[in-house]
Every structure is written in structure tokens, then in C-alpha cells.
Write a structure and sequence with these properties.
Largest sheet: 8 strands, mixed
Distance between the termini: 93 Å
Number of strands: 8
Mean pLDDT: 87
Strand order of the largest sheet: 7-1-4-3-2-6-5-8
Strand content: 25-35%
Low-confidence stretches: none
Structural class: alpha/beta
Helix content: 10-25%
Number of helices: 2
Length: about 150
Amino acid sequence: MKKYTIETAVGIFVLAGLLCVTYLTVKLGKMEIFGGDDYHVYARFNDVTGLGTGAFVEMAGVRVGKVASIGLAPDDNIAVVELRIQKDVRLTDDAIVSIKTSGLIGDKYVKISPGGSGVFVQPGGMLVETESSVDLTDLIGKYVFGGVK
């Protein structure tokens, strides 16, 4: 009888350890099992050069989300960016979404400028006011080869 008690205690200890490792893996890996504290919206851009998944989304200088995915719309070959926005941040349908660069040659991120409309974008909705990034290489090329007048 005493042998089974020790084996049961060791089994419970190992099971508790595995549950702790699973919990830490989910939390540190920022995986979501039961849904997250955010919602998805989409934005369409002519050019998303340099923007990657996981890039930050900022509003008024505060990080409010991340870029979840970037794809190409099959009908018109325009880039579609999926943004994961925190649930407590509400976006209006006239918010302006633009791709910016941190510093002169830093990473790209998405900046959202709030609009004044009272109509809020629903989860899964589309933000239509977008500004693509400025390609520094093209800009330098225009100066070098005299494209600027």
C-alpha cells in the first residue's frame, strides 16, 4: 500500500510539472488558445515594402497591436495587411493607416491616425484610408539621376 502512495505522489508531481511547463510555453510564446485580447481589421496598401508580420501597430505613439499577416488580394494584386488591435482600442472607419519607418533606416511599423467619424470598424472590417511607405531607394535614385525637378 505504501508503494502505491509514493508512486501516486510522484505521478502527481510530474503532472503538475508538465502543466507548469505547458503554461509557460503558451505564455512566453505568446500563443493564444482560448482567444486573445484583440480583434482583426484589414487594410489595403499599394506597397508594403519592408513591412513584416509581427511589426508594431501604433496609435498616438502607443503600441496598440501587431501585424498578423500580409497577403496579396487575388482580384487586384494589392497588398492586404491583417492587423491585430487590442480590444480596448476602437477604430473609426475614417482612421488613416500608414506605413512608417522608425528613424531613417529603422524597422517599418504601422501608424494609425484616429478619425473623427462616429462609426466604428467592426472586427474583420476594412480600413480604407491608407498611405503606403516611402521607398528610400527610389527617392535617392530620383535625386541621383535627376528625377526631381
